[in-house]
Specification:
- The chain is an alpha/beta fold and 395 residues long.
- It is 54% helix and 14% strand.
- The protein contains 14 helices and 8 strands.
- An 8-stranded mixed beta sheet has the order 3-2-1-4-7-6-8-5, sandwiched between helices.
- Helix 3 links the parallel strand 2 and strand 3.
- The longest helix is centred in the first third of the chain and has 26 residues.
- It starts with a helix and ends in an 18-residue tail after the last helix.
Length: 395
């Protein structure tokens, strides 16, 4: 009986991760066909929400100023909710630059999504780039993104977050996961269904975004998930475009790894509980297939995986653990090929790190499992967006 249970759990885990990793990594190799207009070059607004970013704010602003797009056609709008020197630094930069408009204000909302919404309302232009402060966009990021926004049914495009990992083995490991996220996003975009938006950056039409998010809940922390859902619900597409590149630091300590993924899992659970569960199966929310499958891979995966691992250890079924490792290694290698193709990263060291990726991936999935069910035990609690540090200063 125990053997049947363990083999059943193994079959469930394999099936779930076959979808999450296997199918997505193979289909991600296929190119997308999206409408573009190379002559589309409007004025743009760049909106950032900041809180205590004095160590990186100057770099964040300079990065956008140095992009290969005329400063006369850009404006930077910063919603700052800091109690350090962030605001002081922004004001100093704005006073010194007469070639670009930099607007700084203190938002009324005490949340990231609320601050972003106020920044979007203040933006002067129809095309809005939204970006996290710790992201360094590529020099041609703006030029690569704009051709896709000429289509008024396109609600958002976003791109590839390339990890900065230096020579740290730990950061290479967490960086691989960032690259593999791009593989999943490419897959969802191919089937015209994107479950979240990477603000690295996300490029929107202002009118569409404000129209779609007018009833937002300021307590929701999964702003990337919320905006994707809102746009899809209103009939606008959300597309991943690999050529839109940005660099970002990755966490370099287990504490920051725990904080990052624990809050991420609870933010997703919070979003579903507070806003999306009633419309989970409506095609116009995400597309025809992704929401039910994505949701149930969460629920089933975060239930079956811990039971399988604990049961395998208690029953000494190390053969099952070996099968699990080899299966995950195969998917990690297919992800590796697809991710490097999308991101253009050429580093043989990542191939060596891939050997250990099934173990690291399992640890992260277990963190998500713990956080996921901790949220459902107390769904009225607010998700605390604790900031990590090892991924910011080094970026």
């Amino acid at each position: 009986m125990i053997a049947i249970v363990m083999w059943s759990l193994f079959a469930i885990v394999t099936a779930v991760y076959f979808f999450k990793e296997g199918i997505s990594s193979l289909l991600a190799l296929f190119p997308q066909r999206l409408e573009t207009d190379e002559n589309f070059s409007p004025d743009i607004s760049i909106v950032m929400a900041m809180r205590n970013e004095e160590l990186i704010v100057e770099r964040a602003i300079s990065n956008w100023i140095d992009t290969d797009y005329p400063n006369s056609k850009k404006e930077i709008v910063i919603a700052d909710n800091s109690d350090d020197r962030t605001g002081e630094i922004i004001k100093k930069i704005a006073a010194e630059r007469d070639d670009i408009k930099i607007e700084y204000f203190n938002p009324n909302a005490n949340s990231k999504i609320g601050a972003l919404h106020e920044g979007i309302e203040r933006a002067s232009h129809e095309i809005v780039f939204i970006c996290d402060a710790d992201i360094l966009v590529g020099k041609e990021c703006i030029k690569n993104a704009l051709p896709y926004l000429a289509d008024e049914k396109c609600g958002c495009v976003f791109g590839t977050r390339i990890p900065i990992y230096d020579n740290s083995f730990f950061k290479m490991m967490t960086g691989l996961r960032e690259l593999y996220v791009s593989v999943q996003l490419q897959f969802f975009s191919l089937i015209d269904s994107t479950p979240w938006i990477s603000l690295s950056p996300g490029v929107f039409r202002r009118k569409q975004l404000l129209e779609s998010t007018q009833d937002f809940d300021t307590k929701i922390m999964a702003d990337d998930l919320y905006m994707a859902v809102a746009l899809r619900k209103n009939g606008y597409s959300v597309k991943y475009v690999p050529e839109i590149t940005a660099r970002a630091g990755v966490v370099g300590s287990f504490r920051d790894l725990w904080v990052q993924h624990f809050r991420g899992s609870q933010a997703v659970a919070q979003a579903i509980v507070r806003g999306y569960h009633e419309s989970l199966f409506l095609p116009n929310m995400y597309g025809l297939v992704v929401v039910p499958i994505k949701f149930f891979t969460h629920v089933i995966g975060y239930t079956a995986l811990p039971l399988f691992l604990i049961g395998s250890c208690l029953t000494l079924r190390f053969d099952l653990l070996l099968y699990y490792y080899l299966t995950m290694l195969f998917w990690a290698l297919t992800n590796y090929v697809s991710a490097l193709k999308l991101a253009g990263v050429k580093d043989i060291r990542l191939l060596l790190v891939t050997i250990f990726h099934p173990i690291a991936y399992t640890i992260v999935e277990l963190i998500w499992s713990v956080a996921w069910y901790a949220w459902f035990v107390n769904p009225k609690a607010n998700v605390k967006w604790t900031k990590t540090t090892s991924d910011r200063v080094s970026a």
